[in-house]
Amino acid sequence: MNVKYFELDWRDISMEEFNLQNGYRIKSLTIENIKLVESLCEKCSDYYILHDGILPSKKETKEILTALPPNKNYDDKFVLGVFKYNNKLIGIIDIIKDFPVIGEWMLGLMLIDPEERGNGLGKMIHKELVQWTINLGSKSLRIGVIEDNHKGIKFWSNLGYTKIKEVSMDFTKKKHIVNIMTLKVN
Predict the structure, then answer these.
(1) Measured at the alpha carbon of residue 143, what is the angle toward residues 17 and 79, in degrees to the nearest 5?
(2) What are the structural domain ranges in the chain?
(3) Would you state the pLDDT for residue 50?
(4) What's the sign of the alpha-carbon dihedral 82, 62, 110, 1?
(5) Mind listing the pLDDT tens digit for each residue in 112-158?
(6) Cis link prior to 56 (omega < 30° from 0)?
(7) In the chain, which ranges are E strands?
(8) What letter would DSSP give residue 136?
(9) N or C: less crowded end of the chain, CB within 10 Å?
(10) Angle at 43 between CA 17 and CA 83, to 5 degrees
């Protein structure tokens, strides 16, 4: 069954808020949404155990909204929430424009509530995210996926991302090989 979740109106690309089909919507998140972000991160404990080796702390969830890479500012950072019809936060997207180079956008996180996974929602969100970034000048997207995240590697590969290199990184309680993957979008 091919379910169509939403189509965005690209005339307003600020991403402050978009109503989506089937009652879904995407809107910007701010520090005022920290409790919603904390709740979703707790529900996504499987990701955090795999990635960090422990459950997310309040500091880590706050960093989704506040952390910046070197030489970037908050005009370059977009933290977006995916909401259901009942105003329940079911997804978070953290993306930085023009990082590490102009034209390439770094998708730092795309986290979806486990109850919402496996039904094509992630793929549809990504499709609309790609269109939005293209309209803002993106030429490619970049993501880092830990080597142990087999489902994640399969998901991103199926979307067309290709591995360009591996790096070793230390996380909270674990050390991982991270696959750096990119997708040409324009």
Answers:
(1) 25
(2) 17-184
(3) 84
(4) negative
(5) 999 999 888 898 889 888 988 999 999 999 999 988 899 999 999 99
(6) no
(7) 17-19, 25-28, 77-83, 89-96, 104-112, 140-146, 162-170, 175-184
(8) T
(9) N
(10) 15
Please report, in angstroms and rounded to a whole number, the separation of the first and last CA atoms in the chain.
Answer: 29
Residue located via tokens 């309040």:
58
Evaluate the CA torsion angle 145, 61, 20, 120 in order and state its sign.
positive
Residues 6+ apart with CB under 8 A from 86: none
Predicted confidence (pLDDT) per residue in 161-176, tens digit: 999 999 887 777 778 7
Would you put residue 13 in left (φ > 0), alpha (ψ -120 to 50) or beta? alpha
Q: What is the CATH number of domain 17-184?
A: 3.40.630.30
pLDDT: which is higher, 25 or 180: 180
Q: Side-chain half-sphere of 25: how many Cα atoms within 13 Å?
A: 13
Q: What is the DSSP letter of 138?
A: -
Q: Is there a contact between 78 and 108 (Cβ–Cβ < 8 Å)?
A: no
| 35: CB partners within 8 A, 6+ apart | none
What is the model's pLDDT at position 3? 36
DSSP-derived 3-state class of residue 159: coil
